[in-house]
Fold:
Amino acid sequence: MKTILKAQGLNKTYHLGSFPRTIKVRALNDINLTIESDKPVIISLVGESGSGKTTLAKVILRLVQPSSGAVTVAGHTVAGKGTRPSRTEFLRTVQPIFQNPFEAFSQYRTVDAYLLETATRVARLRKDEAVQAVEEALAAVGMQYKDVRGKYPNQFSGGELQRASVARALIPRPQLIVADEPVSMIDASRRMIIINLFLALKQEFQTSFLYITHDLATAYYISDYIAVMNKGRIVEFGDAKQVLSRPQHEYTQLLLDSIPRLDYRWVDRRNAAPGKY
Amino acid sequence: MKLAQYVVQRFIGYLLVLFIGITITFFLPRLMPGDPINNYISQVQARAGQSLSAEATQQLRDSLAELYGLQGDIFTQYRNYLARVVRLDFGPSFTYYPEPVSNILLDAMPWTAGLLITTTLLSWLIGNSIGLIAGYFNKRRWATVLEVVGIILYPIPYYILALVVILLFAYWIALFPLSPTFLPGPMTWNKAVSIIYNSFLPALTLILAGFGWNVLAMKALAVATKEDAYVQFARLKGTTDRTRMTNYVFRNAMLPQITALVLSLGFIFNGAIQTEVIFSYPGIGMTMRAAAGAGDYNLLYGAIILTIFSVATAALILDLIYPLFDPRIRLGG
Structure:
């Protein structure tokens, strides 16, 4: 069994406001998570806004320094006090996909420059190899290099640009791709293209995904494991089908109940269940 | 095709701005009370006493009207004026008669242009580099020191800064001359060195006065830009701090700074009047001041039209080079 993702005693406290009225926000509260598998997996991280999902993603991506604890991805310790993994080694292990591709790509750089730079800087490929790697990665997401070449982000649709950023993340063949709300900015009719892409790439590239979302339907559809977060804690974790069909924690039940359904009348929950959340 | 349309549109706008500016400079002085020819003749009469006959006065009046382009009704004058502006013929200077105004301006122009283009570019470069570093590393203590340089220099009034520099480097430590003396004759190595040596103090004050603002502006832009998602994203692509600072933060923050640079280059033919007067530097600013003092209307006209022309041209150049810096204009979208 390989360890895909392991978080040990992870804490992150933000101090908001200035000195006399500082507010402490515990974005991550003692997160412990171990995912072991021989095959690549898709792990969904669900929870409401402000539950700490994105902070966890940022800690894994080294964009935020945790207050304490450590994260290990595929045997490499990537985050924690005092860890300084080599840059290329870290970037070959973990790659990101951001929520809004139009913010992730600079407006003044062509998209293919991003792909080529990832190939040369992270995967350490020569120029000609890099072009080939870019072509392969784009083919994997159903795009062609000649359609991307020389184009700036504003010349793509949101879905296309997000697929290009998936292709970019694939180039160094990382162990884990952290996708923070990758489909929330995309047209509902196009979401399934990206979602199905994750399923296909898991097999083809042997890459695991950490899929962060608040959309339980897609999480149920693609994930092997689901972690439910609330107020900085992981309240429930386990096999995806099991968690969502037989939720143990009341917060998971609440999340499931919050999905609007066609055959139910809407009831005002504040009156129905007073005092709950 | 789209680009051609863009260029043509900007060019038409440019000609329109020039036309309006030149027209205003023609009509504005004519709305003022008083007649320059009558003023002049009354001065002559006061000096000549009664020895000037009525015919001679009329003759003088006619030849002055011809010389100043004041014959005929206002529309004939306007037409003649436009034709002269197109030929760059602003008539003779009054104070340096019969030296044509265009010659005087041409003589002064290289001095002003050389001094101001160099200093504007240098202060832009130095100021933006310091501002970029201070903004990008804004969490480090040493970067705050850099910003303080801008905060201290920016609010000092120019004339005080210039006097302090003169006191320091021309009086206490007499490294540089108090006012410049330039070798006459053709350009030689020695002459070039003496020009640089003599222009050093005015250039230094202009750079010191100019770059504080650039530091503050660029720092504010860089701090805001470096928090954008694409800078963090670029970090996960394996870029170094330096690459992110130049190719991502600076690349995205520089557009307003380029606008400011090109527009300030457009204003240089106003001459740095303060600099040129304080350092007795023989540029357009000095010429304009002398012209204003002596009532040399033609010379003033010439200098004002030169300014209109250079500001409008700078704006045109800015519009034309913008597509190079911003692909969104170049490619639409």
Q: What stands out?
A: The CA atoms of residues 45 and 53 of chain A lie 7 Å apart. The mean pLDDT of chain A is 86.
